[in-house]
Amino acid sequence: MNKQTEKLLTGDYLTDIGVLESALRAGKSFDMVSRHVLIGGREAAFLFIDGFVKDEVMEKILEYVMKLTPDDMQGIRTAEDFSRRFVTYVESGEEERLEAVCTGVLSGTVALVVDGFERAIMIDARTYPARGMAEPDDDRVLRGSRDGFVETLVHNTALIRRRLRDPRLTMEIFQIGAASKSDVVLCYLDGRADARLLERLRKKLRAVEVRALTMGQESLAECLAPRQWFNPFPKVRYTERPDCAAASVAEGRVLLLVDNSPSVMILPTSVFDFVQDTNDFYFPPLVGTYLRLVRDVVFLLTIFLTPVWFLLMQNPGWIPDWLDFIRIAEPNSVPLLAQLLVVEFIIDGIKLASLNTPGVLNNAFGIVGALILGDFAVSTGFFVSEVLLYMAFVAISSFTQPSFELGYAFKLFRILFLILSALFGVWGFAAGVAAMLLLIAFTETAAGKSYLYPLIPFRGKALLRLLIRRPVNWDNT
């Protein structure tokens, strides 16, 4: 909609306030406040959401402007004149578009409409409800900061600026969603971030046409990324840690912050970025490299351990003597594939149930889970002990991967490997691995970059930096 077709304020108080109160449903929504006052002998009204503005702030504003006399208003002809002389609040501006005034009020801004002014005075006196900035549960560190992002956008941008006191740090804001009008911030370090990537993201953000970002960042990620419903690999990387986000910006990456979401999206990203963990950088380089290698090896075992073991059980002649201990000691009549798949589903069911279990019942829930996948499961004859052993290792080791999305992507492929191995043997297993590698190679991220960067296109130094924890002064030179 261009400016010529937009509805504008007229300067007639009764007309303007009537349209605004009708659009904002001031008489029907109890928390939409329309406070009519006299300012210097002129009719005026404050429009604001009760829950977004502190009573003390509004009291001070009202106390000041209601003391103005007609003499004080002499020579005040426009909203700009009034704002310059009498609005002492730091953040304020003027707006003539009715839709923009309504959006500002619904976002928490106080709108002051004065008779004779063709613009509304927008006073940013909002205070959003916010929880404490506690350390996130899914990305804890042994050392380092203990703060985390919250659902309030301005708090999150402040946490990043606290760590990067560089004037080049830029926060561009967009509004997305016809109904939600969610604030989305594009955060980057000017001169460090890829200019072509920034322009691509700007175009994509402006082109997003949705009614609301109901699920926050996931809704935005699905709007930005190519529509590949069959592809389980995550297209973006998330973090709830301000130190991790600030470090990514310093490296030249771009952040996307969505209001009401306690984490940020890091772009561009590749499959190799997920091998990094915040703890790696709070230990000396040698220790951090060791932890990273352990994580990589364990994660590879979670993908291939049960499919390879199942393949060997199908072909016992392939088992060398030194691996003879992996054979099933007491086999039963239940197909091995059925046992592995059932345990996979049971473990996921227990994970989902634990999310909805009240904290006071966690201990009891753990006991029940141990009984289900313990001696009782073996004694009933449905599972063999080897299946429970290997699946327990896989279930526990999957938590070494910081990204839940990537972990579940590889879990689905692990199930696919099992099914193909049961149907076609070693050729089915090889076909499954080839399909996974091809899907990774052809995955397009939300930033349009290669999912295998810096392997494709090959960048040796960048790849080494992802696989080995290097001293900080090497990367900052």
SSE blueprint:
Elements: H1 13-24, E1 32-39, E2 42-49, H2 55-65, H3 79-86, E3 92-95, H4 98-106, E4 110-114, E5 120-123, H5 153-163, E6 169-176, E7 182-189, H6 195-207, H7 217-224, E8 237-239, H8 242-250, E9 254-258, E10 264-267, H9 285-314, H10 336-355, H11 362-372, H12 375-379, H13 385-397, H14 404-424, H15 426-441, H16 460-467, H17 472-475
Helix pairs in contact: 1-4, 5-8, 9-13, 9-14, 10-13, 10-14, 14-15
* Order of neighbouring strands in the sheet with most strands: 1-2-4-5-3
Give the helix tally: 17
The structural class is alpha+beta
Number of strands: 10
User: What percent of residues are in strands?
Assistant: 5-15%
| Gyration radius, rounded | 29 Å
Mean pLDDT: 86
Helix content: 40-55%
Low-confidence stretches: none
| Large-scale geometry | elongated
Major sheet details: 5 strands, antiparallel
| Element order: H for helix, E for strand | HEEHHEHEEHEEHHEHEEHHHHHHHHH
* End-to-end separation: 48 Å
Walk me through the structure.
With 477 residues, the protein is of the alpha+beta class. The strands form two sheets. Strands 1-2-4-5-3 form a five-stranded antiparallel beta sheet, with helices on both faces. The model has no long low-confidence stretch (mean pLDDT 86). It starts with 12 loop residues before the first helix and ends with a helix. The chain has 17 helices and ten strands.
What is the compact description of this entry?
The protein has 477 residues and is α+β, with helices and mostly antiparallel strands. 44% of the residues lie in helices and 12% in strands.
